[in-house]
Prior knowledge:
Number of strands of chain A: 5
GO cellular component, one term (chains A, B): cytoplasm
Oligomer: homodimer
Subunit structure (chains A, B): Homodimer.
Strand content of chain A: 15-25%
Cofactor (chains A, B): Zn(2+)
CATH class of chain A: Alpha Beta
Pathway (chains A, B): Pyrimidine metabolism
Largest sheet of chain A: 5 strands, mixed
Organism (chains A, B): Tersicoccus phoenicis
Distance between the termini of chain A: 44 Å
Amino acid sequence: MAFTFSPDHVDRAREAAAASLAEGGVPIGAALVVDGELVAVGHNQRVQHGDPTAHGEIDCLRNAGRMRSYADAVMITTLAPCAMCTGAIIQFGIRRVVVGEAQTFSGELGLLRSRGVDVVVLDDPACRDLMEQFQQRYPEVWAEDIGEVL
Amino acid sequence: MAFTFSPDHVDRAREAAAASLAEGGVPIGAALVVDGELVAVGHNQRVQHGDPTAHGEIDCLRNAGRMRSYADAVMITTLAPCAMCTGAIIQFGIRRVVVGEAQTFSGELGLLRSRGVDVVVLDDPACRDLMEQFQQRYPEVWAEDIGEVL
């Protein structure tokens, strides 16, 4: 199975991130695509649901529900995955990840690749702009989300 | 801060695992302890909530809610953490993990230790017995939970 995703799928993840920012939340969105079809979208829910585990990728996987296999899935995420989301991708057997940008947070791309996951980084200015707006407006929430103490 | 937890805290995690098995769910429980005080308990909710991300440790961290720091926290879990839960422990900055047993699933203890997390494995027969009962009764659910296709 090829690395099948479309710009529309990236748009959906970015729209989820933007919707989260509009709610005062962390603007990280994700989309799960299987065989070229969108299965689920999600975004970080730390602020909205008071749930520190609901990063964009985790929320998306939760919204997708139970699946027998992720072997043909592509995870699209607007920001480089943190250690938790990287671990989820590895554990679930997702083999392809599309990252909107990795400049505002470098994540665990090395760990992903070391476990055989194909990673594409888009360096998308719109994804970066959302994160820069958020980091400037809510530095304490951002620190909390990545496990740092200001 | 010392590696502070008590046998009572391990009992709470094991009781959560047993409660999950009684519901037909995956019998993995977790407890979060800060400064010797129990903050939250959780257990795997894949079957109960149809949520593949709700492993015991994730459910426990979700139940604990937002926290500024996990530097003084101990995560107790009845089974060796998978890659997702290992990543969560690393990302959240939890530095001490107590594992009930690592025989029925070896998890990612090496990754945890490579990131500086202190890990104690209890080799608890009661935790192992819960997993062995589950693996025999529900092999397909167990395969799904660890990302394997039977």
